[in-house]
Design goal:
This protein is α+β, with helices and mostly antiparallel strands and 308 residues long. It has 8 helices and 8 strands, in the order H-E-E-E-E-H-E-H-H-E-H-E-H-E-H-H. The chain folds into 2 domains: 54 residues; 250 residues, 2-Layer Sandwich (Muramoyl-pentapeptide Carboxypeptidase, domain 2), CATH 3.30.1380. Helix 3 packs across helix 4. It binds zinc ion.
Length: 308
């Protein structure tokens, strides 16, 4: 009897173990797949987060990273100053210290240039060269060239070339419209502060709120717009890079002394996302040379220092 029982037990155990095996294998495979998926999801999220926290925009509304609801850009234009403002020429003759090596910030290598060219057209304003005491002498572009009949300003020394460019485009059947130009440092500061406060109220820490705000509003003093040497044209989204206006600019802007300031493959030098709408005045000779050399402003200023 006991032998019979043993046989039954053995058979039961064998059967049980045979039935249990497939469940065990399936559970293990499912667990491994879930772990792999989880690791992938974390990696993607981390990479996107890092990108959005590091690359900046240069204006109050040039939002192309993570926010499709761009603010009304007209609020970004400095409408308070006028063409009789005095030029702070002492800032133009800045010192020329030696460029430093590439610096890694938040995982991205950003060009660490700490000097300035003595040429006003090559003045650098970026996250490593914050300009906080500079008021250019500006001139109104004219509402016929601006969005929604607004009237933006530009450094008066740039005015003639800018208008010549817009008129030349018109002759080619392309209507260039300025959607932003000069913004004073104080205007930029108040836009930035508002955005920081907005995120503080949402429960972000001070640092977190500043990081978040800087992906939407440029940190004051780090934008070409604060210098009065930049104009944004027609579209403020990367997906419009093939629109006739932006294609025309890419081809002809250098003839009038303008370059695309934040090119697609230069984020590590400029620290700013690709902005096919943002054109910066550097003068005709420099613009042509920069395009020939395929250099952004940071690279070009260093190049000139090394070769002077
Ligand atoms: Zn811009």
């Amino acid at each position: 009897m006991s032998r019979y029982n043993n046989q039954i037990n053995r058979r039961y155990n064998q059967q049980y173990s045979v039935n249990k095996k497939p469940y065990f294998v399936v559970t293990c495979v499912a667990l491994v797949i879930m772990i792999i998926l989880l690791i992938c999801a974390i990696a993607v999220t981390r990479s996107e987060y890092k990108k959005s926290q590091t690359l900046l925009v240069d204006s109050s509304s040039e939002v192309v990273i993570d926010d499709s609801s761009a603010e009304n850009n007209s609020s970004a234009a400095g409408n308070t100053s006028n063409s009789s403002q005095s030029s702070s020429s002492k800032n133009d003759s800045a010192t020329s210290s030696k460029p430093q090596s590439i610096e890694v910030i938040d995982g991205y290598s950003v060009y660490n240039f700490v000097g300035q060219s003595s040429d006003w057209r090559l003045k650098l304003s970026n996250r490593l060269n914050v300009i906080n005491n500079y008021t250019p002498s500006t001139k109104y572009i004219g509402s016929q060239y601006c969005q929604n009949n607004d009237n933006y300003q530009i450094d008066e020394r740039v005015y003639d070339d800018l208008i010549a460019m817009i008129e030349a485009a018109k002759e080619d059947g392309v209507k260039l419209i300025s959607v932003s130009a000069y913004r004073s440092y104080s205007k930029q500061q108040s836009l930035y502060n508002n955005k920081v406060n907005y995120y503080l109220k949402q429960g972000y820490s001070q640092k977190g709120a500043e990081n978040k705000a800087s992906t939407i509003v440029a940190i004051p003093g780090t934008s070409d717009h604060n210098l009065g040497l930049a104009v944004d044209f027609n579209y403020l989204e990367q997906r419009y890079e093939n629109k006739p206006e932006l294609v025309w600019l890419k081809e002809h802007a250098e003839e009038y002394g303008f370059v695309m300031r934040y090119a697609k493959d230069k984020e590590n030098y400029t620290g700013v996302i690709y902005e096919p709408w943002h054109y910066r005045y550097v003068g005709k000779d420099h613009a042509k040379k920069m395009n020939q050399l395929n250099m952004c402003l940071e690279e070009y200023v260093e190049y000139l220092q090394k070769n002077s």
